Amino acid sequence: VLENQDLQDSIKPQKVEFHSLNFNTTLHWQPGWAREARDALYFVQYKVYGQSTWQSKDECWGISSLVCDLTHETSDIQEPYYSRVRAAFAGVYSNWSLSHRFTPWRETVIGPPMVTVVHSNKCIIVKLQAPRSPYKRKRGSKIPMTNYYDLLYQVFIINNLLDEQHRVLVYEGKDKVIKIQDLRPGVSYCIVAKMYVPMLDHSSAYSSRQCTVL
């Protein structure tokens, strides 16, 4: 019996955590510390905080992977969720390992916008596109993150003559197309942008650089 108890403890999943980007939400965990844990199978359940019964996730029932996609199961983005994972090896089941409480709207990471740059005489036109969620409209297109939050675009310009690292904020607002004027011809400029959520005081990472020479 003791051996089974030891095995139960030593294969129990560790560090059960939600990771979420633009509401694409996955549950991650690490194997127990026993050597056998490398060959364990895992079982995932989830529920909304306050519910009494756990739901099993069929696609993550008896899997060898250390990750489970719960995007669809956490689509009510204002609700707080829990998830739990247990491991099995050689007919022995570990106890459940519980995640922290996870509320998608508060905790998902918002990604940077897509940036397109075109230049004309002495000015740069910047076109911005907000990241999209995995959730779809009836017609099938993915709903942008701007539907869920009051988001602002922050646009920065980098003058490569001066300093690669020096970003100057040139625009903050909701316009998807902006014009940066009075720039010097023959100079290489790069544009990066972020999404900013005033209500939560969160910023996304920077977009990738889009560079142009006037």
TrEMBL record:
Example of a GO MF term:
cytokine receptor activity
Q: Which InterPro entries match?
A: FN3_dom, FN3_sf, Ig-like_fold, Interferon/interleukin_rcp_dom, Type-II_Cytokine-TF_Rcpt
- Keyword annotations: Disulfide bond, Receptor, Repeat, Secreted, Signal
Task: Give the Fibronectin type-III domain ranges.
Answer: 6-96
Q: Name one GO cellular component term.
A: plasma membrane
Look up the domain of life of the source. Answer: Eukaryota
State where the protein is found.
Answer: Secreted
Q: Could you tell me which residue ranges the Interferon/interleukin receptor domain spans? A: 108-212
The UniProt transmembrane annotation reads none
User: PANTHER family from the xrefs?
Assistant: INTERFERON/INTERLEUKIN RECEPTOR (PTHR20859), INTERLEUKIN-22 RECEPTOR SUBUNIT ALPHA-2 (PTHR20859:SF51)
Instruction: Give the family from UniProt.
Output: Belongs to the type II cytokine receptor family.
Function, as annotated: Receptor for IL22. Binds to IL22, prevents interaction with the functional IL-22R complex and blocks the activity of IL22 (in vitro). May play an important role as an IL22 antagonist in the regulation of inflammatory responses.
Which protein are we looking at? Answer: Interleukin-22 receptor subunit alpha-2
Protein species of origin: Thryothorus ludovicianus
Taxonomy of the source species:
Eukaryota, Metazoa, Chordata, Craniata, Vertebrata
